[in-house]
Design brief:
The complex is a heterodimer of chains A (about 110) and B (about 110).
Chain A: E1 5-7, E2 10-13, E3 19-24, E4 31-37, E5 44-50, E6 53-56, E7 65-68, E8 75-79, E9 88-95, E10 104-105, E11 109-113
Parallel strand pairs in A: 2-11
Antiparallel strand pairs in A: 1-3, 3-8, 4-5, 4-9, 5-6, 7-8, 9-10, 9-11
Chain B: E1 4-7, E2 10-14, E3 19-25, E4 30-38, E5 45-51, E6 56-59, E7 62-67, E8 72-77, E9 86-94, E10 101-103, E11 107-112
Parallel strand pairs in B: 2-11
Antiparallel strand pairs in B: 1-3, 3-8, 4-5, 4-9, 6-7, 7-8, 9-10, 9-11
Classes of the chains: A mainly beta (about 110), B mainly beta (about 110).
């Protein structure tokens, strides 16, 4: 079974530029999550989708971050414009969407903002 | 506020030795607790999952314990190997819409030969 795929694996941009990350979840997983993980910390949930609807985006900085999952499968996360403090690893995870189920994580995209 | 605190933040052990990582949580209502292993440059991978009624769960050389009364969990690594060098993250799930997870900050383990 293929895991969660993410691209790119690494991205370096200058502040005020825009960037987009892509995630393809495990086939059949209804729930998709985007997390931000700052070095030395645990992941912080940015947004959670159930199929193509948003379940929780309370910690998403909506003035600069946006995410979509138009067809209920793959998803993109965009930052525009980027700030220095956005430097982090962006993890995508997916799960079946039933209570107590396991989230499977992708390898992450490491973003460096200069 | 739901919180998960882990200790120590980091530790160094010699290959072949044992170590124990701690996790305290205040997540309510409790659903389950997972320990994840995160290798450098990789996403977290689940090691164990424990529900309210379970107090010990093993996965090879990894043994997790749960005390739901004191809201504490531990992860014990036996006979450590170089490949155990990683961050170990305690994650607690609340019984709520969307199965929201609360992550600890992780313990970074370095196993030296």
């Amino acid at each position: 079974e293929a895991g969660v795929a993410q691209s790119p694996r690494y991205k370096i941009i200058e502040k005020r530029q825009s960037v987009a990350f892509w995630c393809n979840p495990i086939s059949g997983h209804a729930t998709l999550y985007w997390y931000q993980q700052i070095l030395g910390q645990g992941p912080k949930l940015l947004i959670q989708f159930q199929n193509n609807g948003v379940v929780d985006d309370s910690q998403l900085p909506k003035d600069r971050f946006s995410a979509e999952r138009l067809k209920g499968v793959d998803s993109t996360l965009k930052i525009q414009p980027a700030k220095l403090e956005d430097s982090a690893v962006y993890l995508c995870a997916s799960s079946l969407g039933v209570p107590g189920d396991e989230q499977f994580f992708g390898p992450g995209t490491r973003l460096t903002v200069l | 506020k739901n919180q998960v605190e882990q200790s120590p933040q980091s530790l160094i052990i010699l290959e072949g030795k044992n170590c124990t990582l701690q996790c305290n949580y205040t997540v309510s209502p409790f659903s389950n607790l997972r320990w994840y292993k995160q290798d450098t440059g990789r996403g977290p991978v689940s090691l164990t999952i424990m529900t309210f009624s379970e107090n010990t769960k093993s996965n090879g050389r990894y043994t997790a314990t749960l005390d739901a009364d004191t809201k504490q969990s531990s992860l014990h690594i036996t006979a450590s190997q170089l490949s155990d060098s990683a961050s170990y993250i305690c994650v607690v799930s609340a019984q709520a819409a969307g199965n929201k997870l609360t992550f600890g900050g992780g313990t970074r383990v370095l196993v030296k030969p």
